Amino acid sequence: MSRRSTAFLKTALAAVHYSGAGNLLAPYTRGRGVIFMLHHVDPSAPQEFEPNRILKVTPSFLESVVREVRDAGFDIVPLDQVRERLEQGEEGRPFACFTLDDGYRDNREFAYPIFRRYCAPFTIYVPTDFADGRGDLWWLTLEKVLRAAPAITLAMHGETRHFGLATAADKDAAHHAIYWWLRSLPEDQARAVVAELASAHCIDPRSANGDILMTWNELRELADDPLVTIGAHTRGHYALAKLDEGTVRAEMAESIARIERELQRPCRHFSYPYGCENSAGEREFRIAEELGIETAVTTQKGLLYSDHAHDLTRLPRLSLNGDFQDLRYVKALLTGLPFAVMNTLKRYTGAGVSA
Ligand SMILES: [Zn+2]
User: Fold this and answer.
1) Are 242 and 281 in contact (CB under 8 A)?
2) Crossing angle of the two packed helices 245-263 and 216-223, in degrees rounded to 10
C-alpha cells in the first residue's frame, strides 16, 4: 500500500471511530467473526528505512488487541471451530481467530506467551522449506540490499534503471518501484534478480535471514500445546497463481503431508502465500477444496459472514499491520463499516482499496 493510501485509510478509520457511525451501524455491518493476520511480533523499534515493518507489530499492541477483542464480546476460537460457527448463521456471539504466517521465531518468543496468558488459541502457517532452513525470504533480502547499497542499477522492463539511495526517501521510492516490478515477474526470475543483487552487494541471504525462522523441533514443541494449530503455507512460498496446476497441487498437498508427518497430527488449514487476488484465485480455491482442506485464508480484507460457510477455502482476513498499530483502527474495522463502504465503492466503481 502506498503511503498516500495508508494515510487516506487511517483518516477514514479515525473518522469511523470518532463519528460513532461504526457503533451505530455495527448491528447491520458487523460480521459473524474475524480472522486476524499477523507475521512478525517483535518489540524492536522500526528503522528509518524498513518497508517490511508493515509485517511487524509489537507484543504490547498484540496484547491490547487480544484484550479489546475479548472486551468487545468476541470469543477467541481455533480455526477448527470456524465452520461450525459460520453454519450457526447470524446467531450467537461473534468470534475471532488469530493467525500468523511464515513461522517466524519471534512468534514463539513474543506472541506465544501472550496467547498463553489469555488462553487464546492461535494458528501458525508454515512453508515447509522455511522450517527446513531453505526458505528464500527474498523480500527481506531486498530490504537489506537497499539499506546497505549507496546506489543500484537494474535492467527493468528492458531498460537500464539507476537508483541513487542516499536517503531513506530514495530507498523507499526505489523499494516501491523494484518490489512491485518483482511481484509482476515469474517468481523464480524475481528471486534470481534479488539473489544477484545480494551477491553484488556482498550480502549473503542465508546468514542475513537464517535464524529468524522456527525449526521443526521448535514447531513440534509449540504444536504440543492444545492452544496451537499449525497450518500449511506451501513448500516454497510461491505465488501459486503464477505456477502450473500440477505444481500448485504439489506445493499444497506435499506441504500438508509433510506437516502431518513431522508433527504427527492432522493438518487441516492452509494459507495462500501473498494471498492477494493475483496470487490465489478460483483455480487455487478449487484445488484446496479437492484436497479436503477445511479452511484456507487469503490476504483479502474483510470480516466473516454466515455466507462464508460455503466459501471456506477463500476466507478473508484482517491484517494487524505495523503501520496501523492503533486500537481505534481495529475497533473501527471490527464494526464492519469500512468493509461495507469498500464493497459499495467496488460495486459502483469496479475497484476497491487494496494493499
Ligand atoms: Zn507468507
Assistant:
1) no
2) 70
Q: Distance between CA 97 and CA 77 in Å, rounded?
A: 6
Distance 224 CA to ligand 1 centre (A): 23
> Parallel, antiparallel, or unpaired for β 75-76 and 56-57?
unpaired
pLDDT at 204: 87
C-beta separation of 273 from 279 below 8 A: yes
Ligand 1 centroid from CA 26, angstroms: 31
Tell me what pLDDT residue 342 has: 65
Mean pLDDT of the chain: 89
State in Å: Cα 90 to ligand 1 middle.
31
If pLDDT is split at 50, 70 and 90, which confidence band does 282 have? very high
- Asked if 295 and 268 count as a contact pair (C-beta separation under 8 A), the reply is yes
Whether 150 and 200 have beta carbons less than 8 Å apart is answered as no
**Separation of 38 CA from ligand 1 center, angstroms?**
10
User: How many Å lie between the centroid of ligand 1 and the Cα of residue 274?
Assistant: 6
DSSP calls for 256-271: HHHHHHHHTS---EEE
Distance 299 CA to ligand 1 centre (A): 10
Lowest mean pLDDT among 11-20, 119-128, 203-212, 286-295: 11-20
Q: Which domains does the chain have, with CATH numbers?
A: 3-135+213-349 (3.20.20.370), 138-208 (no CATH)
What is the whole-number distance in angstroms between the Cα of residue 353 and the centre of ligand 1?
Answer: 21
Strand, coil or helix: 350: coil
pLDDT of residue 58: 96
Of 271, 273, 323, whose CA–CA distance to 58 is shortest? Answer: 323
Task: Output the CA 77–ligand 1 centroid distance in Å.
Answer: 22
Distance CA 113, CA 119 (A): 10
3-state class (DSSP) for residue 96: strand
CB of 284 closer than 8 Å to CB of 241: yes
pLDDT at 249: 98
Which region holds residue 71: left if phi is over 0, alpha if psi is between -120 and 50, else beta? alpha
